[in-house]
Amino acid sequence: MKKLINSPDTVITDALRGIASAHPELTVDIENRVIARAEKVPDKVGLVSGGGSGHEPLHGGYVGHGMLDAAAPGEVYTSPVPDQILLATQAADSGAGVLHIVKNYTGDVLNFRMAAELAEDDDIRVVSVVTNDDVAVEDSTFTAGRRGTGGTIVVEKVAGAAATEGADLDTVARIATEANERSRSFGIALKAGTVPAAGKPGFELAEDEIEFGVGIHGEPGRERGKLAPLHELVGYALDAIHADLPVDGDVLVIVNGHGGTPLIELYGAFAEAVAWIEGHGARVARNLVGNYITSLDQEGFSITVTLLTDELTRLWDAPVSTPALRWGM
Amino acid sequence: MKKLINSPDTVITDALRGIASAHPELTVDIENRVIARAEKVPDKVGLVSGGGSGHEPLHGGYVGHGMLDAAAPGEVYTSPVPDQILLATQAADSGAGVLHIVKNYTGDVLNFRMAAELAEDDDIRVVSVVTNDDVAVEDSTFTAGRRGTGGTIVVEKVAGAAATEGADLDTVARIATEANERSRSFGIALKAGTVPAAGKPGFELAEDEIEFGVGIHGEPGRERGKLAPLHELVGYALDAIHADLPVDGDVLVIVNGHGGTPLIELYGAFAEAVAWIEGHGARVARNLVGNYITSLDQEGFSITVTLLTDELTRLWDAPVSTPALRWGM
């Protein structure tokens, strides 16, 4: 295993030290592993997300104006613990309640639920929205039902914008739910990522083999197949999404790298996605192309499609200032 | 070779199609390979850069308000041709002259010079600044003298800010020169990138071996050595920089991924860089952590240090809106 690390034991702590130094607008509690906005916004619904590490910039990179108030990063590919999520919830709370945005993995759902109960004991009202946008498989290694992947970024952005506008907790939760319901994702891996503590790739693929429908922790997808030209891979992903939720009208498209795939290839994938979507009579109204929800050094990509409404477009366009997304201010 | 491409022949065209679709604020001439701002700013000094492709987001990702006016991407790791650079220069020209920002590689320097002569025939005044911030080696595979690498981003940012403020061509060139002279870089590779047309990595490293001082096209560095803990690698890079230009006062630090290295590791590297720099009595006043000048899917990182002045800090902080850098607006 070749990695830029001091040791597998210090990967998270070292990254959190780096995040703390790079982003003085954030407060990073390295010991308890909570990343929060340095300045609390009074009377705003707080937004908290979290999950295993290894998906950077998710979620810490989305803490800031117009998006999350706090994030709880667990060990690599491992859920944060309830006390840690409680601390993040307390950091995000300014009296208007807190939304938990939880990717649908069994450990995450359980630990966020326990944290929500602890927060209620603390008189913080919590509503949870579970994201499950990945159409690849029903049930998976760590999940009952569908997995939450790239759609989570859309949920965090639009819910964050709504909270920033002053919407109440139920409204913010309604918007988060709607964004999740209108988002679908599909991922394809060329080479698995390597968890530092494991020291070898999560799965092995032959030189001409790829995994269709891979999860963000290297969970198996629908099938293994042969490497094919990019337009066929993008077509496979979008066919899978379209079969589940027809791609129609104005859509937001995220072409996301898994961490080990360079931007030049992601732009090529985006070009093919636009061609596919326009060929199906829809319009790519908004986009992101880059590394937004990664799987360590995995080579591969995912596509997320969100069917926009006027309200979702407006909230997507609203100003945001976080380490990983910044516009309008 | 596993890549997300249609074929090695279409990599650049496919990426340019993607860039065109993703960024409507840019005009992309796919046939002639010029990326320019869709709206020309009257009476502003124009800024043009370019070079081989495979370093994305460099340079196309830095075209926009406050930075470049046009970029000319060549074939992968290959200089753009003079006619192409001339088109970029014409696109950038609005009557106040054009600055060419050229990374020091023999082909780039030659082709930009020819393009500058063609532009002068066209009554466009051109001044060129050649970047050569990489301290790793004197002379290299494609270069007489030092190579231009991460410092080029700093040069493009501060010169772009000066031009946006209304500075004249000589002033913009003076600031670009100063930013280059105050910047130093050093890169370390864990695994070489693969040029699509070549089909295999540019060089081979054993499982425990790394390249110290690697160039952005996989050129050899100072030596091959053993993989070591991250703080030692960062120390090696900063020692090399410090020996050439003492790290002192307020500095800008860019911890840059080569394309195949995930963000979690880059943040760890940044933490070690901050510790080293503070331990040497200097202060990290500004930073970037992420993929800013890549080498296809190469695994590794580089560190760029710029010794700031009040003027450089102000110009770095000035509003910028490009695909890859955006703040203040």
UniProtKB/TrEMBL annotation, chains A, B:
InterPro entries found in the cross-reference section: DhaK_1, DhaK_dom, Dihydroxyacetone_Kinase
**According to the UniProt entry, where is the signal peptide?**
none
The keyword Transport is annotated on this UniProt entry: no
Q: Name any one GO molecular function.
A: glycerone kinase activity
**Source species, domain of life:** Bacteria
Provide this UniProt record's keywords sorted from A to Z.
Answer: Kinase, Transferase
Record's GO cellular component, any one? cytosol
Name the PROSITE patterns on file.
DHAK
Question: What Pfam families does the annotation carry?
Answer: Dak1
In terms of NCBIfam families, this protein maps to:
dhaK1
How is this protein named in the record? Dihydroxyacetone kinase subunit DhaK
Species name for this entry? Phytoactinopolyspora alkaliphila
Gene it is expressed from:
dhaK
